[in-house]
Specification:
There is one protein chain. By secondary structure, this protein is an alpha+beta fold. The protein has 20 helices and 15 strands. The strands form 4 sheets. The protein has a 7-stranded mixed β-sheet with strand order 3-2-10-11-12-9-13. A hairpin with a 2-residue loop joins strand 5 (192-198) and strand 6. Helix 3 packs across helix 9 (152-158) and helix 11 (224-230) crosses helix 12 (237-248).
Length: 476
């Protein structure tokens, strides 16, 4: 999604080594119960042709879906590229003559299941959208307010998937080089302990090693709850109410784990033969493979997670990035990245003693065929407790902005939708603010616009120009 906003061009990140590689296929939809897999392509016609071969009775539904969903996706992207305000959002809607606006608001109140079931009767067409939408968000697809997940297929037709050469960290490396070239300084491996507040104004941060970094502007790209609950000790009267509200909010647990492995040779997925008949020579290991459970298995997975247990067939997001990008291949081998959903933060006996991660690797091997486990030379599991310890994700949870477009339209929760807080000098961005969605960049770009605006006007913030600032970031 970072390619859906113009920051790569605006910051000239290609000058700093950022290059995106693209697979021919967008992703592969596979299933634990060995239902017929299907391939999603960026090109609409290729996807329709693929469905005509695999799920022919769903083609008409997909056409109807695109007619309704494409205007919604275009409007979502237009709004996300614009610093949110009531006037700007309404102007964006007016500029598209209202195309998609009514449906966007309608879908945002409904569940993903209700929306998708209007167009598809085969669960194999709905489940991949649920797996990359509500399941990634940690909720069942029947949950009201998840309906915009239905726009995911359409959005993927508008924004082509790509991966940075050298791995996802190449994006962060390019951003760091850009900041340093502009005279900024980046300090890593330094955890923030407190936001420094003096005379009711945020003036910097204190690190866990006691070091203090001062600046007239602080931008926190971390979990907003941790910012307000853990980092602000003595809020001024204007911010005290908001801090207390965040203290009372429920704390969410993480539910995702990941296996990273090194293989000495490439596996051949069991579903490869059926796809190869339709697409000879198509690379099936380079793009993401979304391995979804059946609807009944999905219900069971949510029930078990609430009990601290892992489903027999969790959702998998499978990648082998070294296939597309040989620079990532270690000593001629290949890298496996296996994301596993429905993994509770706390399980009986604790994660260090659990045999679950090994079972996930074995489940992956069952999808690849006999003997593939012998190709694994090294592997490591990152469970929610490790995400907490190593990535500063409290209880292993990755926050994401989950409010409706209407909340953004009217500016409710301005600390999340307008990036400004009642603590002067403190701004928020990151996945916990609008529009969220992981590695997107839109919230950071919007927050930068808010800060820049405030640099050139008093707006009750400052009377002197702000010339430098601090961005505190944790997690991913």
């Amino acid at each position: 999604m970072v390619r859906a906003v113009p920051i790569i061009d605006e910051l000239e990140l290609s000058r700093f080594g950022l290059e995106y590689l693209e697979n021919e296929a967008g992703y592969v939809a596979a299933f634990h119960d060995r239902s017929a897999p299907w391939v999603f392509f960026h090109e609409i016609d290729r996807t329709l042709d693929e469905l005509a071969s695999t799920y022919p009775d769903q083609v008409d539904g997909y056409r109807r879906y695109l007619a309704d969903a494409l205007p919604v996706s275009k409007l979502i992207l237009e709004i996300a590229r614009t610093q949110p305000s009531t006037g700007r959002i309404l102007a964006g809607v007016a500029g598209r003559k209202g195309a998609g606006a009514a449906r966007l608001l309608e879908w945002s109140r409904q569940s993903a299941f209700d929306v998708m079931s209007r167009y598809f009767t085969a669960w194999q067409l709905m489940m991949p959208a649920f797996s990359t939408g509500p399941t990634v968000w940690g909720v069942p697809p029947q949950t009201p307010g998840t309906g915009l997940a239905a726009a995911l297929y359409a959005t993927r037709h508008l924004v082509k998937s790509g991966r940075p050469r050298g791995g996802s960290g190449a994006l962060g490396d390019a951003l760091r080089s850009c900041i340093e070239a502009a005279g900024g300084r980046v300090q890593c491996d330094a955890r923030v302990e407190r936001i420094l507040v003096r005379d009711g104004v945020a003036v910097g941060v204190r690190l866990t090693d006691g070091q203090q970094l001062t600046a007239p502007t602080v931008v926190a790209a971390c979990d907003p709850q941790r910012v307000f609950v853990d980092w602000i000790d003595d809020p001024p009267p204007g911010a005290a109410k908001l801090v207390e509200q965040w203290r009372r909010r429920p704390v969410h647990d993480g539910y995702e784990s990941k296996i990273v492995a090194v293989l000495d040779h490439l596996p051949t997925p069991l579903f490869a033969s059926s796809v190869a008949d339709r697409h000879p020579g198509l690379d099936l290991l380079g793009p993401t493979t979304v391995v979804s459970p059946s609807p009944d298995q999905l219900v069971e997975a949510h029930r078990l997670r609430a009990e601290g247990l892992v489903a027999a067939h969790p959702t998998f997001l499978l990648n082998m990035p070294s296939v597309l990008d040989p620079t990532m291949a270690p000593n001629g081998g290949h890298v496996l990245s296996l994301e596993v959903l429905f993994t509770p933060y706390a399980i009986p006996g604790g994660w260090p003693a659990s045999s679950e991660p090994r079972r996930w690797l074995e489940l992956w091997a069952e999808l690849m065929g006999p003997g593939v486990l012998e190709s694994v030379t090294q592997w490591r599991a990152m469970t929610p407790d490790i995400y907490e310890a190593e990535f500063s994700m409290y209880r292993g949870h990755t926050p994401a902005f989950a409010a409706s477009p209407l909340v953004t339209l009217v500016g409710k929760q301005p600390e999340l939708t307008r990036y400004r807080t009642p603590l002067p000098g403190l701004y928020l961005c990151g996945a916990g603010t609008y529009p969220g969605a992981g590695i997107f960049g839109a919230s950071g770009r919007n927050a930068a616009a808010a800060v820049t605006h405030d640099l050139h006007s008093s707006v009750g913030r400052r009377t002197a120009p702000i010339r430098r600032g601090i961005i505190a970031r944790a997690g991913r």
